[in-house]
Design goal:
The structure holds 2 protein chains of 2 kinds.
Chain A (H helix, E strand, L loop, with lengths): L1 H38 L4 H33 L24 H12 L10 H17 L10 E5 L2 E5 L10 H8 L2 H11 L3 H32 L10 H5 L2 E7 L2 E6 L2 H4 L1 H15 L22 H26 L9 H6 L1 H5 L1 H29 L5 H29 L4 H19 L3 H11 L23 E2 L4
Antiparallel strand pairs in A: 1-2, 3-4
Chain B lengths: L3 H4 L6 H5 L7 E5 L11 E7 L2 E8 L7 H6 L7 H5 L6 H16 L5 H29 L3 H22 L21 H24 L2 H7 L7 H7 L4 H4 L7 H4 L12 E2 L6 H25 L17 H6 L1 H13 L6 E9 L2 E9 L5 E7 L1 H7 L1 H5 L4 H10 L4 H5 L1
Antiparallel strand pairs in B: 1-2, 2-3, 5-6, 6-7
Helix pairs in contact in B: 5-6, 6-7, 6-13, 6-18, 7-8, 8-13
The chains are: A mainly alpha, B mainly alpha.
């Protein structure tokens, strides 16, 4: 019964993603063809993309994430999660509906609360800040491709559809440009509230976001060099190039191999980008601008929907970051195997829209999984201190990014087929996994101390604060 | 008269260019209503950027007139007031107070009562330490660790509720022993809960201690030197984190602590990490002690058989004149504590919980002063935080585990 419910849910979600992708292809093809035929301008496909993937997919996913965050965190913490809001409809009023009504109650609460503004706050900037925080987060999705470029015929029109809201030549550079706008929203919110706590939060946010932009940009240069492009969408974009295999063989029509996914080519770049982008989204462990137990946050004076804008922009950032990560490092819309087999199926050749919808579904599934990863990180890690964030950004991420860039650059020059880069990448992955699995020094010491009978070991009187381990907390015997 | 314009030179001089920007320190009030100041305390903080220049903890928001209330009621009726001192570990306060009064009378309580007091006090020591660890995780942003710790504490609260009838305000024990024996089957339930608590503690411990972010934030922050800690009058885990081996349970054993085999964990840096990890180790010691106490638990009465101090059994009250008189005198006049004064201390979760009691021979305390461990430790907070970052205040404030109820009385 319960398993059946889970399967129904999974199929429902997959079906929804599939149909949204299909709709996006069909609508895009039709509008593109219609506009070219009747108005003589291109770009209809992009308009449909803006509507479907940005307004529908990203917004709906961000809204669902508010619930998912509560449910998933509850799942991690042995709790039930939200189940109090019920619909007063016969047959449904005794069912929690997995907490879905909480989304509606959240919205009603946000919209009906008084939007309070402190008398001493700067009125214009105070009202501007939530919009400044929301818009860049949302606009970041503009360059992310959600499916392959296909030629689709619908009613009388046949048109070639690039599945991204825009596909400028500047590509990732546009993304960096928009991302750096996000800092204004938070720092203006902190400053214009005329509140000391908010000011502290705003200052923390601006310094953090400005310093992580350096690492953010640098971490992607390796990928740009590997594929010699800064575009994500289109036939020559990173997403399409990642669908190729580095090594592959054909098993009875079914192709298996190692795809050129960014995470295999640039694992260090992936970790750096993920860390830096996480810091840009200001979520735990990088949430010192919010730091609810210290300074309460840069949005302390906001209430109602203005606060809701800050909150929802955080969730939009999670979805957008997942989308960007998928497109750059996880092969975009492509499957890890069987891509060619799937595209060569008879039915897919006849109806390319099915192929596009399937790949679109794959893309969104990857996005959902990465969203889950981000929430899991948010609920396990404690918060960095403000100066530790700066240390991490400037002293660890930046040098690592530079080293990664030089090494990758040399490998790409030496072997343009990217195979050398991949081998080094796989070795890096092995090293990271090994480092993760070896217990930390203090645990090793504790284990050693335990095997030596517990006494004697562990008295480490080095005197420097950073070198002592839990096992070194010795046990005194007896009273004086 | 020459106008000012004649002397006005638009190019700034060298000294003007080199002059520092005039800055002022920012004064921030953390509390009394602030997420980090659990226990309603106001911290007036002078900030230079993110650095704390000066800090001034201000207490008094939870003042209830503890001493005066005690003077106006009988020795036994003081007990409910002691629940509200360290409300996270009320059994240690209950038993500490009772032991002090018994010492003033010169009373020896039955062996079984002594062991049950050890069990109760250690259970609540675990509860208090779990709360500290959990809240520490919570305030550093690790909400999951908090819930694991609180789940373990909840088990203790359930067991304590079965024992005493209340989850927080236990008021358990009476002068001369205990008001009731253990419920049937309670020991097995507790031993079962201990296994689960140990599991949850290990999980919390791994989640926090093995996290680099957590240890980086704890190590070397909130440091206090041993001399300063002794000067301020630190006791308990906060003092032992500096490596000073002082634990009342070992130094001056009471109840059945001299019969139990346990160690006193010591740190040596006096920083937040030592204070945190010491509590983890102390929980392990307490678990060990409870298991030993259950093994050694002797049979017998839990209350002395002296009707001047213990209430007579109900059937005696209803059927004999001696019973009625003893009952009446105990309820109306209180326990006849002989005139005199005493300072008696027990080890509470946060340190030495001392009682200065003075009796004038009536049934009421003439003076009842508590040396709550949190007060001295809170007074050292400014020393630990000044010159450090604002963010370091949060774990420091957590590891000293200030409990508003006992600090402000």
């Amino acid at each position: 019964m319960r398993l059946g419910l889970v399967f129904t849910g999974v199929f429902l979600i997959l079906g929804a993603l599939f149909s949204v992708s299909a709709l996006s292809y069909a609508g895009g093809a039709w509008l593109e063809g219609f506009m070219q035929a009747k108005l003589g301008v291109a770009g209809g496909g992009h308009i449909v993309q803006i509507l479907v993937s940005m307004l529908v997919c990203v917004m709906v996913m961000a809204t669902l994430l508010t619930l998912a965050e509560r449910k998933w965190s509850a799942f991690m913490q042995d709790r039930t999660g939200p189940n109090r809001a019920r619909l007063p409809i016969p047959g449904l009023k005794n069912s929690a509906l997995a907490g879905l009504p909480h989304i509606a109650t959240d919205v009603v609460k946000m919209l009906t609360k008084e939007a309070f503004r402190p008398a001493t706050a700067n009125r214009f900037l105070f009202n501007l800040a939530p919009m400044m925080a929301f818009a860049p987060a949302f606009a970041l999705f503009a360059i992310v491709p959600t499916g392959p470029t296909l030629t689709i015929a619908i009613s009388d029109y046949t048109s070639r559809i690039v599945m991204s809201p825009t596909n400028p030549d500047s590509g990732l550079l546009l993304m960096f440009a928009i991302a750096s706008l996000a800092v204004y929203g938070t720092s203006i919110a902190g400053w214009s509230s005329n509140n000391k706590f908010a000011l502290l939060g705003g200052v923390r946010a601006s310094s953090q976001m400005v310093s992580y932009e350096v690492a953010l940009g640098l971490s992607l240069v390796g990928m740009m060099a590997a594929f010699s492009t800064v575009r994500l969408a289109g036939d020559d974009g990173m997403a399409a190039l990642q669908a190729r295999y580095l090594w592959s063989f054909n098993a009875g029509g079914f192709d298996i191999g190692l795809p050129a996914w960014g995470v295999f080519l640039q694992p260090v770049g992936f970790i750096l980008f993920f860390a830096a982008a996480f810091a840009e989204t200001k979520r735990a462990p990088f949430d010192s601008p919010e730091g609810e137990s210290e300074i309460v946050g840069y949005f302390i004076e906001y209430s109602g929907m203005q606060f809701g804008m800050f909150m929802i922009s955080e969730f939009v950032e999670v979805v957008v970051l997942s989308g960007v990560l998928t497109a750059i490092f996880f092969g975009g819309w492509s499957l890890p195997f069987g891509n060619e087999w799937l595209s060569n199926l008879e039915i897919m050749r006849q109806y390319p829209i099915l192929l596009g919808a399937t790949f679109g579904m794959v893309f969104w599934v990857k996005v959902v999984l990465l969203c889950y990863l981000q929430l899991a990180i948010r609920w396990t890690f404690p918060r960095f201190r403000y100066d530790q964030i700066q240390t991490l950004g400037w002293k660890i991420l930046l040098p690592l990014g530079l080293v990664n860039l030089f090494v990758s650059g040399a490998l790409i020059l030496w072997d343009p087929s990217l195979k050398a880069l991949t081998i080094v990448g796989l070795l890096e992955i092995l090293a990271v996994v090994g480092l993760t699995l070896t217990p930390p020094r203090q645990v090793r010491k504790a284990q050693e101390a335990a095997s030596h009978g517990g006494h004697g070991g562990g008295h480490d009187d080095h005197g420097h604060a950073h070198d002592h381990a839990p096992a070194a907390l010795s046990a005194g015997h007896g009273g004086h | 008269m020459a106008s000012l314009d004649e002397h006005y030179d638009p190019t700034p001089g060298d000294d003007e260019l080199e002059a520092h920007l005039q800055t002022r320190n920012m004064v921030v009030n953390l509390g009394p209503s602030h997420p980090a100041t659990h226990g309603t305390v106001r911290l007036r903080i002078e900030l230079d950027g993110e650095t704390i220049v000066k800090m001034d903890p201000e207490i008094g928001f939870l003042h209830r007139g503890f001493q005066k209330s005690c003077e106006n009621t009988t020795w036994t009726n003081v007990l409910p007031y002691t629940d509200r001192l360290d409300y996270v570990a009320s059994l240690t306060n209950n038993f500490g107070y009772l032991t002090a009064v018994e010492a003033l009378i010169g009373l020896e309580i039955p062996q079984r009562a002594k062991y049950i007091r050890v069990i109760g006090a250690e259970l609540h020591r675990i509860a208090s330490h779990l709360t500290t660890i959990g809240a520490l995780g919570l305030e550093l942003g690790g909400f999951s660790a908090f819930l694991y710790a609180i789940e373990a504490r909840e088990l203790i609260t359930d067991r304590v509720a079965e024992l005493t009838g209340a989850r927080l305000t236990t008021s358990y024990g009476r002068i001369g022993g205990l008001n009731r024996d253990l419920p049937a089957g309670w020991d097995e339930k507790v031993l079962k809960s201990l296994i689960k608590i140990e599991e949850l503690l290990d999980e919390t411990d791994r989640l926090l201690t093995r996290n680099r972010i957590f240890t980086d934030r704890m190590r070397g922050t909130g440091v206090i030197t041993t001399d300063d800690a002794l000067d301020f009058g630190f006791t308990g885990p906060c003092l032992r984190a500096n490596g000073v081996n002082y634990d009342v349970r070992k130094a001056k054993p009471y109840w059945a602590y001299d019969q139990l085999d346990f160690e006193v964990p010591l740190g040596h840096n006096g920083d937040n990490f030592d204070r945190y990890y010491l509590r983890v180790l102390e929980i392990h010691q307490s678990l060990k002690m409870i298991r030993q106490a259950f093994k050694q638990l002797p049979a017998g009465p839990v209350m002395i058989d002296d009707w001047r101090i213990a209430l007579p059994p109900k059937e005696q009250v209803y059927s004999t004149i001696e019973g009625v008189i003893a009952h009446f005198k105990l309820v109306m006049e209180g326990v006849p504590v002989p005139p005199g004064e005493i300072y008696h201390a027990t080890e509470a979760a946060n340190g030495e919980l001392g009682w200065y009691l003075r009796s004038d021979g009536s049934g009421r305390p003439y003076k009842c002063h508590v040396r709550a461990p949190g007060f001295q430790i809170l007074s050292g907070l400014a020393k630990m935080c000044e010159g450090r970052m604002l963010a370091d205040l949060i774990p420091t404030f957590d590891t000293i585990n200030m409990i508003g109820g006992e600090v402000e009385q």
